[in-house]
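Colleagues,

Please find the record for the two-part complex below.
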Amino acid sequence: MSDAPDTGALASPSCPAPAEADRVTLAHGAGAGASARLFEERVWPAFANAALGARHDGAVLAAPADGARLAVTTDSFVVRPLFFPGGDIGRLAVHGTLNDLAMCGARPLALTCALVLEEGLPLATLSRVIASIGAAAAAAGVPVVTGDTKVVERGKGDGVYVNTTGVGAVPAGRSLLPARVAPGDALLVSGPLAEHGAAVLSVREDVGFEGAFASDCTWLGPLVETLLEAVPSVHCLRDPTRGGLGAALHEIAAAAGAEIELDEAALPVREPVAAACELLGIDPLFLASEGRFAAWLPEADAERALAVLRAHPDGAGAVRVGRVAAGRARVVVRSRMGTRRLLVLPSGDPLPRIC
Amino acid sequence: MKLVDEFRDPALARALAARVVARATRPWTVMEVCGGQTHAIVAHALDALVAERIALLHGPGCPVCVTPLETLDRAQRFALDGGGILCTFGDMLRVPGSAGDLFAARARGADVRVVYAPLDAARLAARTPERPVCFLAVGFETTAPAVAVAARWARQQRLDNFFLLVSHVRVPPALEAIAGAPDARVDAFLAAGHVCTVMGTAEYEPIARRFRKPIVATGFEPVDILHGLALAVEQLERGEARVEVQYERAVRPGGNPAARALVDEVFEVADRAWRGVGVLPRGGLVLRAAYAALDAERAFPALADVAVAESPECRAGEVLRGALRPPDCPAYGRRCTPEHPLGAPMVSSEGACAAYFRFRAAESAA
């Protein structure tokens, strides 16, 4: 076992190694002077808002409008490398949680942010991550109202772990639920799949595809609002993050107790992603997207929904990829050959294969 | 995707399947040698398109599956006890050794890394001169040239911390063993196109003649496989037993001379044990004397000392010889799944059991 942590995530090879004073130390997590300085100098400027400005133990938020219900979601972000083509852990931590709110049909009200830092992390790297969180939250108009910072010993973390929790309001009358997915529903996806997974993989396992891909990491809120306002009959939304569309379909099929049939020829995968998957022996169905969603809605509204999605810049690549049928809870792929096969979940993360 | 989509064209595939069925005047049994072909067959349900006349048997062409348990155990031992870095292809991480897979070894503290190219492992050794780096070199003739490149580079760089745990295998001896077995049921072979891309087709000629079986060097896409089947069936119907190339866009009769020369410089042919099959005469490759310094087993004699324990329930050997279809194995899908594999064919992306499980599970999608 290596005693030294993989410093690839901690220091960029092109930068001179920072002095000890420019790195995170255990004192930054001890709650006293260094912690306070870290907050005032690096966190507050990026997140400044009224609730955080109260310097209280928690944030007190206004109740949502009459008839609206609250949605809450939380996610921890562990990604290597911290900065990848098209995004970074900070942007991902904001968009990932805001997108989960959007999948519930919720409009975001507030975010929390908890950081677990590894001793030795360059403070400049931390600042980049925090700035990215701040920028992504500000772009979505969502304040980071409370948070926490802990430091773990060197070798016990991967640089930075980020947890974000999101609170949002679901307008009265809106109900998006896996259990509402029913036979006769059409299945749409909002754009090309597997782009985030391919981008991260390309810089991770020394596969040498750098430059060819960028993560699709995007806040889906505006696209979802546009869709739901135009087509309120949508039954369910799901963003195919970890595990890709394949895993998402399995979850929904199980919750809905119905068969989902996927049309292999219709799956939108861009050429470079498809080629990389082909070379590495990885099925793009199981690679993550961070800026796409799948939508289930009555067949009668499918064409209108597609038109609405395609008219929005974040949904320009929307297509219909399948349907829901009565039957056992399972996912079936109609292959290009016209034959049918079951889609079985792989065990573990996709790994490049031998030949 | 160019050079892929054309070979997944449904109309062309259906026309070829119809040609196979139309030309066959009796049932024929054809074995596709390579695990990549098996996966394409099962994923696209190509066997269903020709089932009226053709029984497809799945061959031994999964390098991960035939890597001996001893080699896996030695790799684990290197990673756990030696303080070294073990590099290998992604498929190898989930293959069960006697005491769990390489993921389990990693959880116990072993430094195991996935590389896509063997040269990446040699480069890692150059970057970490204080630690031994070992590449677990498995594969058929297709991957041997890439390993030879790494070996030659390591020698040129005078690396003294780069090693190879070699378990390279050769296809022709396996075909001889299958064709010559007393219970042989195979009428024709679809040989692995990419192996022939490297090695050419000459070494298959004596096998086709001796055992009177057509051998068609075939590609990996649905259209390739159905075209290869059509060529094999047409030979059978004419009473011929020739070596023929379906995978013309990649295979030259002489193979790839540069790649062959590289392999020949680094490796020599030797008898080799195949997991589940046994020792095959001239069945694999070992490092030549000039490269013996890279041999992990020689540099770390302690690696020899492993106690091998194969699951008694696993019938991988029969599956690899085409004598048992994966779903007919009593353990399939019950005691043996990709999450909890008893043997390698349930793990690898090339393994026949995994192919069935992944695309068919325990039930039919029909």
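Residues 1-15 of chain A have pLDDT under 50 and may be disordered.

Comments are welcome before we finalize the supplementary table.
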